[in-house]
Amino acid sequence: GELLAQLDDRTLRADLDAASAAKVEAQLRLEQADRELERCRDLLATGTCPGRDMDDAVLAKEVAMRSLDAATSRAASIASRIADSSIASPLNGIVLDRPLDPGQAVGPGDVLYQLATNRQPLVEAEIDERFLPHLACGQQAAVAAVGRDAPPWPAQVCHIGGQIDPLSGAVLVR
User: How confident is the model at residue 115 (pLDDT cuts 50, 70, 90)?
Assistant: First the structure.
């Protein structure tokens, strides 16, 4: 859908820059630890590297790998939050209302826009079961809004519910 709003993501972008730099640093540390481990292996083969140095090199590489994994996860998480700061329309339609002002703080669950689809409206009505014999899918109908002095809209029956509500004696018709 079309972009409706862009939340302020400057702080997130700064955090992503820092996380990306930390990721590069962690990658360099891993490469250094890998070189040190290889050097210790070569020296161990010649008998000139103490076992403790080898243990330290193995541990340093493990720590460097975990640091890189953490930095990569942090950068991916921040990038995902940046992507979530762009708000696109979930449907093709028109904006009916924007109840918030630009720059206003928003939180989860806040209504940012009220949208209407460009598709034909779907009207559901509960029709008394007495009229079931007179209804058929494809049948032409007219829909009138209660309380409006507008002429009825032309419509067509596209669905007749399969169950009658035992309390009201009505069936759902679309």
Answer: confident
In DSSP notation, 3-47 reads: EEEE---HHHHHHHHHHHHHHHHHHHHHHHHHHHHHHHHHHHHHT
Q: Which two tokens stand for residue 101?
A: 């002002």
125's enclosing H/E stretch is strand 125-128
Q: Which of left, alpha, beta for 74 (phi over 0: left; psi -120 to 50: alpha)?
A: alpha
Quick one: tokens of 48? 């000139």
pLDDT category at 102 given cuts 50, 70, 90 is confident
Residues whose CB is less than 8 angstroms from the CB of residue 12 and which lie 6 or more positions away in sequence, other chains included: 78, 81, 82, 85
Q: Give the span between the Cα atoms of 70 and 26, in whole angstroms.
A: 9
Q: Which residue pairs from 157-162 have beta carbons closer than 8 angstroms and sit at least 24 positions apart in sequence? A: 160/132, 160/135, 160/136
The β-bridge partners of 94 are 116
| pLDDT value at residue 51 | 83
pTM: 0.57
Eight-state DSSP code of residue 51: H
Instruction: Considering only the C-alpha atoms of the chain, give the largest distance between any 2 of them, rounded to a whole number of Å.
Output: 99
